[in-house]
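so my prof wants the structure for this chain in the tokens format not the other one, which i didnt know existed until like an hour ago. anyway here's the sequence
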Amino acid sequence: MSCGYGRGLVFGLEDAPPEHWRLESIAAHDLVTLSWLSDFDRLCLWRLLDLREAVEREGVELMNVNGLLNLVAWSRLLGGDIVPHGRLPDSFSAPTAGRLLMIPAECSMWFETRGDAGMGSQACP
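here's what i got, hopefully its the right format
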């Protein structure tokens, strides 16, 4: 967990985490925002991370420049999914297609503008 004051932080690990562990980075203020969501808990987080890994195993590269809170907001906007299936072009499924999915960078702003109630009723993927 990082805080939004001062310079950026980059660190490395001497040893890789155990195989069944995940390493996620989140800013302190984003973690506080997630903690306010009454229908979002650690199981929701693990399901969301499982879903992200499943999508990436299918050869889709997710570009999410605004972090975990943004991914949670994107998933809520899509009713618990992270791929907008009905809005993908036909060429997306072609074997030679570069499958890059850009998650809008402003999704996490909807927590501020709409509050928890405006994000839909399905928090977990």
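also thought this was worth mentioning. The longest helix spans residues 42-57.
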